[in-house]
Amino acid sequence: MTRWLLGSMLLALVVAGASPARGAQRRVALLVAHPKGGDDLVPLRYTANDLERMREVLTSLGDFAKEDVLVSYAESADAVARRFDAAAKKLENGSPEAPSLFLFYYSGHTKDGELRLGSSRLGLGELKRLIEGTKASLRVALVDSCRAGAITRLKGAVKGEPVALAIEDTAAQLGQVVITASSDNEDAQESDDIQGSYFTHFLTSALRGAGDDDHDGAVTLSEAYSFAYANTVSNTVGTKGGIQHPTYRFDLRGAGDVVVTRPGQPTAAIILPKALAGRFVLFDLGRKVVVAELEKEDDAPVRVALAPGKYVVKKRERDSLRVQRVTLGAKQEVTVDPTKMEKLAFADDYAKGAVVTTEEIRYGRLGVRLSLSAGAQAFLSAPVRDAYFPALGLFELTLDLDNALRRHLGVRLDLGLGGASDRPLVVSDPYLGEQRYTVNVSEVTLGSALVYRFVLTEWLNVGLSSRMGLISVSRAFKGVDLPKQSFSTITPGLGAEMDLRLTSWLQLGVRTRIHYIFFNVDEPMSLAYIDGGLVMTAVLR
Q: 453: closest CA among 443, 468, 444, 463?
C-alpha cells in the first residue's frame, strides 16, 4: 500500500505526455564516486561498488551506450567539472530537435553544502549549475551522499546538518528531477552486509525489475523511487543511524513519466513465479555481491534482469532459510522452482553477502590464508637455556583454512625452521666442574592447530589456537670432539594472535604461543618454551 501511494503521488506531479520512442532519446550519464572527504571524515568503503552497480544497470538495461556513461572515481572537483563539459559535448552531438536525457549520480561524502571530493569541494549550487549547463531536455540527479561504517556506519562519521539539493519550480528547471538518499535532517546509511548503500542497492534492484509495479517490462523514475523509498525506510528502522527517508523533486511537466530501464527486454533473467512470496536476495557468485533484493507478493511474477553468470537465490523465512543456485546463459531466463529450494536451519541471521553455497550458509565462508612469520623461540627456564637449548630465531610458513569446521573455527598447518649459531653453553658437573661449549643449534617443527578467530572491528581480528606439534632439534659442538646430538618429540601448546587488515588481501599481525616439550638428558624432563613473532598474511580467499 505504501509503495502504491508513493507511486500515485509521484505520478500526480507529472503532466501526462507522450514518452519518446525507445532509442529516439539521446542519453548521457555521469557517475561520480569518491571514498574520501578530507581529514575530518572517515574514508568510505563501498563507493566503488555503488558506482559499478549503477553503471552496469544503466548500460545493460537503460538504453545508455557504454561510451555515453562517463565515470569519475576518486577525482578532484576540477576533474569532475571537466567530466560535465565532456558530457555536454556528447549531448551536443545529437540532433537539436531530438529529446535528450542527462543523468548524474553521486556516491560519497556531503557536508556543509558541498560534495566532498577528497581534499577538494564542489558546492551544491555549482553542482546545480553544472547539471543545468548540459542543456539536456531532461536532467536527472541521484545524490547518495555520506557513508556508513562497521555493520552500519553513519556516512561521513561526523554529525552535522545534511543538505538537501532542492530545485525550484522555475522555467529554467523544467524537465529536471532530483532524488536524494535521505531527507534534509537525516544521515544516509549503508550496510556492510550488502557492501553498499541502502539507497543505491534498492534503487538498482528496482531498475533491474523489482520495481516494475505494473509489470509492463519497463521501470520509470516514479516506480524506481517508490521501491527505493519503501525498502530504504523498512531496512533502516533498526539501524544505528535511524530511519532514512529518501526525498525527491519531480518537475516533468510536458515530458511524461520517464522510463529509465527496460528489464523486460530480451536479457538473462531470474523469474520469481507468481506463487512465490516473501523477502528475496539475489547474490552474484562471480563477484561475491548482492545484485538485487525485493519483497514479493503472490499477485504476479517478477522478472529480475541480470548479466549471464552464476547466482544464488535466497529466501529468508521465519525459522529457516531456502536457497537455490541458478546459472544464467546469454538471454536465458530461469524460473525459480520452490521444490528445488533447499531448506536450511540457521543459528543466526547470516549476512546477505555471505550466502554463497549451502556449506557456507551453515559454516561460514571458507577462507584461505597463507602466512610467513619471523620471530624467536626461548625456554622459560634460564638453566635450560644456559646448559641445553639457547634462544634461537624461527621462521614459519602457515596455511589457514578459516571456518573449515564451523563458523569462526578453522584449521591451521605450519612448518617452521629455526637455528642459532656459535652459542655458548655452560654445563656444571660435580666431578668435572664447569664445562663451556660452543654449539650450533638447528630446529624443524611441524604442527596442526584448531584456531578460533573472531572480528573485533572491521580492521582488527583476534584468534586463539590449540596446537599439537612435532619438534626436532639438533646440536653440533664446535672446538671439541663431541658427537652431534639430536632428538624429536611431540609438543602440545596454546596460542594467541592479532591481525590488522592493511588491504582486502594483506594482513599484518603478531602471534605468540606457549608449549611444553618432553625430553631426556640423564633423566626425564618436562619444560615450557615460548615462541612468537611478526606475521605477514596473504588472504587468498
A: 463
